[in-house]
Amino acid sequence: MAAVQGGMSDADIETDIKTEPSTDGFGNNNANDGRVLSASPGSGSSTGSNKQTAAVTPEDQQTLLAVLQFLKKNKLIESVEILRREAGLPENSLDPKATESAGAGSGGAAGIVDLEGGDVSSLLSRVTGSSSAGAQAPTKAVAEDQPDVRVVLSAYSQQGDPTLYEVYYSDLKKFIETVLDCHRAELSQVFYPLFVHMYLELVYNNHESEAKAFFEKFSGDQECYYEEDLRVLSGLTKKEHMRGNETLLDFRTSKFVLRISRDSYQLLKRHLQERQNNQIWNIIQEHLYIDIFDGMPRSKSQIDAMSGSLAGEAKREANKTKVYYGLLKEPEIELPLDDEDEEAENEEGKPKKKKPKKDSMGSKSKKQDPNAPSQNRIPLPELKDSDKLDKIMYMKEATKRIRLGSDNLPSVCFYTFLNAYQGLTAVDFTDDSSLIAGGFADSTVRVWSVTPKKLRKVKSAADLNLIDKESDDVLERIMDEKTASESKIMYGHSGPVYGISFSPDRNYLLSSSEDGTVRLWSLLTFTCLVAYKGHNYPVWDTQFSPYGYYFVSGGHDRVARLWATDHYQPLRIFSGHLADITCTRFHPNSNYVATGSSDRTIRVWDVLSGNCVRIFTGHKGPIHSLAFSPNGKFLASGATDGRVLLWDIGHGLMMGELKGHTDTIYSLRFSRDGEILASGSMDNTVRLWDVMKAFDDLETDDFTAATGHIHLQDNSQELLLGTYTTKSTPVIHLHFTRRNLLLAAGVSQL
Amino acid sequence: MAEERRQKHCSVVLPTESMKAMAESVGVGQLQEDSCVALSEEVSYRIKEIAQDALKFMHHGKRRKLTTSDIDNALKLKNVEPLYGFQSQEFIPFRFASGGGRELHFYEEKEVDLSDIINTPLPRVPLDVSLKAHWLSIEGMQPAIPENPPPATKEQQKVESTEPLKVVKPGQEEEGTIQGKGQGTTTPDGKGKEKGLIRLKPRSTHELSVEQQLYYKEITEACVGSCEAKRAEALQSIATDPGLYQMLPRFSTFISEGVSTFPTSCLLNHFFTSQKSPEHICVQSADLRLSSKVRVNVVQNNLALLIYLMRMVKALMDNPTLYLEKYLHELIPAVVTCIVSKQLCLRPDVDNHWALRDFAARLMAQSCKTFSTTTNNIQSRITKTFTKSWLDDKTQWTTRYGCIAGLAELGPDVIKTLIIPRLAIEGARIKAVMEGPVISNIDKIGAEHVQSLLLKHCASVIAKLRSPPDNVEQYRTEYGYLGPMLCSHVMKARTQAALQAQQVNRTTLTITQPRPTLSVSQSGLSGSSGPRTPSIIKVPSSLTLMSPRPGTPSQPSPPATKYIVMATSAGAASTQQVITLSSSQSASPVTSTVPSATSTLQPLVKLEPGSGPGLTASRPLQKYIVVSLPSSASSSLETKSSVLPTSISSSSLDGGMKLERSESPGASTQSPH
Question: Domain named TFIID subunit TAF5 NTD2: which ranges (chain A) (predicted)?
Answer without folding.
Answer: 160-288
